[in-house]
UniProtKB/TrEMBL annotation:
Residue ranges, compositional bias (Basic and acidic residues): 971-984
Classification lineage: Eukaryota, Fungi, Dikarya, Basidiomycota, Agaricomycotina
PANTHER family: RNA POLYMERASE-ASSOCIATED PROTEIN CTR9, RNA POLYMERASE-ASSOCIATED PROTEIN CTR9 HOMOLOG
UniProt TPR repeat ranges: 182-215, 543-576
Name assigned to this protein: RNA polymerase II-associated protein
Gene Ontology cellular-component annotations: Cdc73/Paf1 complex
Region of interest (Disordered), residue spans: 927-958, 971-1077
Record key words, sorted: Repeat, TPR repeat
Organism: Candolleomyces aberdarensis
Length: 1077
């Protein structure tokens, strides 16, 4: 097409006589007449391509292709095939022009945008390649210069087929000959842009604009795209606006500006009115762009989103299908499938939606929206495991972080699915907690870096998410549960009205933490808020809230308010069993056991199958079981297992405890009694084992088995049954170690003091008294607040055993303190009183056996007083005539008699201790006086030495002062003699220096005044230089290094002869000074 001439008409000569001119501005859409003229006039090839190209420019592709095909037929008929390469190149370009408006694929199941029967883009490209190959073949055969057209066409075809490197080489080949070829430059810029080389692409598009401001396609579009990719958004928008001004009908600039305006409407920090205006303006521009080119996937995709928001699903689905079929990039294709899936999802077509999301994921497995959509469809189909797998696959992609997908996956994992075991569910909950933590932490980091966004607020302001987080942490961390509920309450309050259920839950957490006042305030607030709701909703909520409030009243010790609350609750709901149970418990606390028993029996009559109620009643009977009087308890427990639920774990544990209790309290020493006792222990172990099989996490059953193991209930019961006596100690230690391992695991499961008490028992049995004391004190302080008398006696026993083992009065004192605390709690406990007397007596006995150096008179006097008090206690205990005493009166009387004998030696021990401490005190005093005398002697010697040093320093200072004065006097004398000698000495010409052959004569002569100056300067900072400023001016300009010199007495020289120089340190000043004088 290089031979095409300019002009808006083409002249065709017919038979050499008639010339017909064809006006190119008024071409008939039907090319038949033009074809007849071209055939008749046997026109050259450039005329054919000129007219075909003109039809193409006007959009008449069929007419242009018809002319080109006729040209081929005509030229082949006349034997001028060598002139056809431009025609084939034209046909290739026409095919590529058709391909630009052809679908990339055709949906076989399209519901709104069916394109069945249309030719695909790839088919057009294939035809274009065939035409190009034919053109190249003809050019090669003819040997003519093909020009730039084939290379440009080939480059465009390669660019369309994404062969970027080959396309770039084709364009570079054209530009090597014609550096300003606009088509090649535009192609090169597109290649660079596709390769994400935005700076290079920008320079190329700017060159095109500089060469041809009116070029089409407009290079400003490419300039704007490059600037946008380089994050120069304002400049990009300006380029597109200028393009729209130059070409008002161009759809690409309208589409890009519309998308930019829609994106601007989502920006943070602008008013809602500005957002609305930007969105409306962008929507209008996108719609105009689509009207200008309805076969562009990008415009269809943008417009589809607008119709989805409007709820016009049919039109949105048609545009989504249009996007899919005309998408020229993978990203656009994926978005088309996603939007089609969203529309089908909203219409309830779940299967079609699932297919669309699956197709989107096949193209882009990392696409978050497609994965979330597919997971939602799987959830709709009740395929929870598949949904989890879909999101898990997405989260496993490296560098893939989607907060929405993470939160959704966490919620799915937290959801109990059918067929999942308890252990798997626990693992799923753990993963869900980790996912929620990761998502919330990521949002916090993003908000800190970039400020809170709308997307992050949509997630963090989700009340249900925080409630689910609280549910996941329930039983794991009360602090995390509390934080989640507080976040949910904050969000609920921000909406205008707080949800009373959240306030009630927070009150429950405060209640569990023991902060009763805070819990009470929250419960009352929840009740107040619930009363403001409609009656049907309020009644349901207020029931549990009122019960919680009554519970906190009860825990605060306000029995009257608690009773009123329970009565009020039961007046509304007489069948509320929990309230009746709490009333029974309050009566039990008041020691009104019979009344409590009646209430519990009433509850059982109305709800005989309530296993929780039956468990409570079994506990009530257990607390009131007496030795050889457990028939009622036994019948009730086994009735529950027989008639209600034989797999009830609580009843199994209660039955096991009953067998253990019978065996432990049995005092039968006959062989049959011992055998029955062993059978009860074995039955207890079997029931505990069965409970553990049903509930592997039942800590109480595990603890029961540990107790049985520690007591060797399944072995020889530590000698009660026949066995090897030598192995008893080893077996006992082994059993206790096993029991301790179990207790350590149970301690992690249940928060109860009994676990620590049992561990203390085990440590005590192993004579590990320090660890036993630690366990007992933990249980006493953490769980019983130092008010459990039995536990205090265990501490007393441990400290007592430690004191005996270590012969420690401190440990014995601790044992006495715990015994007194236990007696203070239970003043009627004769065991505590006996133990107090025993410890006091034992303290005196222990100190009496200790030599004087290891005890003090104060401690000895104290234990003697305590032993005297113990005598009174033993006397009262021995004279107690009560029945069923927990000690032997005879032993108490014997301890009293032993105390009398022991105290007879008390005075002797006190005298000996006084004498020893007096001797020690005298020895210490003598040693102190000796140390003081030695100290005074050393101080006197130091004082004398310091005075001597002071005298020596004063003497040395005086000598230095005299030396300085002499040096100053000598300096003045030398200065005066030097002045006189200089005045008498005539000026002499400078002498030529002679090199001395060797020795000291090789050194240059130096003036004596240099030596004197140095000598004088060394006397101290206070002295002035020997020579005056005038004399310094007479010195040679070149300074020589000063050397120290000493003139000996025998070193006399002639007046005119040179003087040999001797060097020595500066400390010797006298010889020099004498010679200078």
């Amino acid at each position: 097409m290089d031979d095409i001439t300019s002009g808006r008409s083409v002249d065709i000569e017919l038979g050499g006589q008639e010339v017909i001119s064809i006006d190119l501005d008024n071409l008939d859409p039907n090319p038949e007449d033009v074809l007849d003229l071209l055939k008749e006039g046997q026109c050259k090839i450039w005329v054919w391509t000129k007219l075909a190209g003109e039809y193409w420019r006007r959009g008449h592709l069929d007419a242009a292709e018809r002319i080109a095909q006729t040209a081929i037929e005509t030229m082949q008929y006349t034997g001028a095939s060598t002139a056809l390469p431009p025609v084939y190149a034209l046909l290739a370009n026409i095919q590529m022009a058709r391909a630009r408006r052809a679908p990339k694929l055709i949906l076989p199941d399209a519901q709104q945008d069916s394109l069945q029967g249309e030719k695909l883009k790839e088919e057009y490209y294939r035809d274009a390649v065939q035409y190009l190959n034919t053109s190249n073949k003809l050019v090669t055969e003819s040997g003519e210069n093909p020009g730039t057209l084939p290379f440009l066409t080939r480059g465009i075809q390669l660019l369309a087929s994404r062969s970027l490197d080959d396309a770039l080489r084709a364009f570079e080949g054209v530009l090597a000959e014609k550096p300003t070829n606009l088509v090649a430059l535009l192609g090169k810029g597109r290649v660079f842009y596709t390769k994400r080389q935005y700076k290079e692409a920008l320079r190329v598009f700017q060159d095109v604009l500089r060469y041809s401001p009116d070029c089409k396609p407009d290079p400003r579009i490419g300039i704007g795209l490059c600037l946008w990719a380089m994050d120069h958004k304002a400049k990009a928008k300006a380029a597109w606006q200028r393009s729209l001004e130059v070409n008002p009908g161009e759809w690409s600039a309208q589409l890009l500006l519309g998308l930019e305006s829609i994106n601007a409407s989502k920006a943070e920090g602008i008013s809602e009115e500005a957002k609305s205006q930007a969105f409306v303006a962008g929507a209008k521009m996108v719609e105009r762009a689509f009207q200008a080119n309805q076969r562009n996937g990008s415009a269809a995709n943008a417009l589809c989103e607008l119709f989805i928001r409007k709820g016009q699903h049919s039109r949105a689905l048609k545009l989504a299908e249009r996007t899919i079929q005309f998408a020229d990039t993978l990203t656009l294709l994926t978005e088309g499938y996603i939007r089609a899936g969203r529309v089908s999802h909203s219409q309830g077509a779940n299967q079609h939606s699932l297919r669309c999301y699956s197709a989107a994921l096949e193209g882009q497995p990392k696409n978050t929206i497609a994965a979330i959509g597919m997971a939602q469809m799987q959830m709709q189909n009740d395929e929870m495991a598949a949904a989890i797998h879909t999101l898990d696959t997405l989260m496993q992609v490296p560098n893939q972080r989607s907060t929405e997908a993470t939160v959704m996956l966490a919620s799915l994992r937290a959801y109990p699915r059918p067929g999942i075991s308890g252990s798997d569910l626990a693992q799923e909950k753990k993963r869900a907690r980790e996912l929620y933590d990761r998502a919330l932490k990521g949002l916090e980091i993003d908000d800190a870096r970039h400020g809170p966004s709308k997307a992050s607020r949509n997630i963090t302001d989700d009340i249900d998410m925080h409630i689910e987080i609280a549910r996941l942490w329930q039983g794991e961390s009360i602090d995390r549960v509390s934080k989640a509920f507080k976040d949910a309450l904050r969000i609920s309050e921000a909406t205008g009205e707080a949800d009373p259920r959240l306030v009630n839950n927070l009150g429950g957490l405060e209640h569990l933490e023991g902060r009763l006042s805070e819990a009470r305030v929250l419960y009352e607030s929840a009740l107040t808020k619930a009363s403001q709701l409609p009656s049907n909703v309020s009644e349901t909520m207020s029931t549990s809230m009122l019960y919680n409030l009554a519970r906190v009243y009860e825990d605060q010790g306000d029995v009257n308010l608690a009773k009123e609350a329970y009565d009020k609750l039961l007046s509304r709901h007489p069948e509320y069993i929990d309230a009746k149970v709490r009333q029974a418990q309050m009566l039990i606390d008041l020691n009104k056991v019979n009344e409590a028993h009646d209430i519990l029996k009433q509850c059982l009559v109305s709800h005989p199958g309530n296993l929780n109620l039956r468990a409570l009643y079994a506990h009530f009977l257990m607390q009131n079981v007496r030795i050889n009087d457990y028939k009622t308890f036994r019948e009730f427990v086994f009735n529950t297992l027989k008639d209600h639920d034989k797999y009830d774990v609580y009843s199994l544990c209660a039955a096991a405890w009953l067998h253990y209790f019978q065996a432990r309290e049995s005092r039968e020493t006959s062989p049959k009694g011992i055998e029955d006792r062993k059978k009860n222990f074995q039955k207890s172990a079997e029931l505990y084992d069965k409970a553990l099989q049903l509930d592997p996490l039942c800590a109480y059953a595990a603890q029961g088995l540990a107790i049985i193991t520690a007591e060797d209930a399944l072995g020889t019961m530590y000698g009660a049954l026949p066995g090897t006596a030598g192995d008893e100690a080893q077996k006992r230690n082994q059993n206790i170690r096993e029991a301790l391992d179990i207790f350590a695991k149970v301690r992690e499961s249940i928060n109860d003091g009994c676990v620590y008490v049992n561990m203390g028992h085990c440590y005590y049995s192993r004579d590990e008294f320090d660890r036993a004391i630690e366990s007992y004190e933990t249980a006493s302080q953490r769980f019983y607040h130092g008010q459990n008398a039995g536990l205090l006696m265990c501490l007393c026993r441990s400290w007592y055993s430690k004191a005996i083992k270590d012969q420690s009065l401190t440990a014995m004192t601790s044992a006495l303190r715990y015994a007194e605390q236990s007696y203070h709690i239970q003043p009627s406990d004769k065991v505590a009183l006996y133990n107090i007397a025993m410890i006091q007596q034992k303290s005196a006995e222990m100190l009496f056996s200790i030599p004087p150096p290891k005890r003090t008179l104060r401690d000895l006097q104290r234990v003697v007083d305590q032993a005297t008090h113990a005598q009174k206690l033993f006397a009262s205990l021995a004279n107690d005539k009560s029945h069923g005493l927990p000690y032997n009166r005879d032993i108490a009387d014997q301890r009293r008699k032993y105390g009398d004998i022991m105290l007879r030696k008390a005075d002797e021990h006190l005298v000996a201790q006084r004498q020893y401490e007096a001797e020690q005190l005298a020895r210490i005093e003598a040693g102190r006086r000796k140390r003081e005398d030695e100290k005074r002697r050393h101080e006197e010697e130091e004082r004398v030495r310091m005075e001597e040093l002071k005298r020596e320093s004063e003497k040395l200072a005086e000598e230095r002062r005299i030396a300085r004065e002499q040096a100053m006097e000598w300096t003045r004398e030398v200065r005066m003699e030097s002045d006189e000698e200089r005045e008498r000495r005539p000026k002499k010409p400078k002498k030529v220096k002679h090199e001395a052959p060797s020795g000291d004569e090789s050194e240059p002569k130096k003036k004596r005044r240099g030596k004197l100056r140095r000598a004088g300067s060394d006397q101290g900072d206070e002295e002035q230089p020997v020579f005056s400023d005038e004399e310094e001016l007479e010195k040679p300009a070149k300074k020589r290094p000063v050397k120290k010199r000493v003139v000996r007495d025998d070193d006399e020289e002639d007046a005119n002869g040179p003087r040999k120089k001797q060097f020595k340190s500066k400390e010797v000043l006298s010889d020099t000074d004498e010679e200078m004088s």
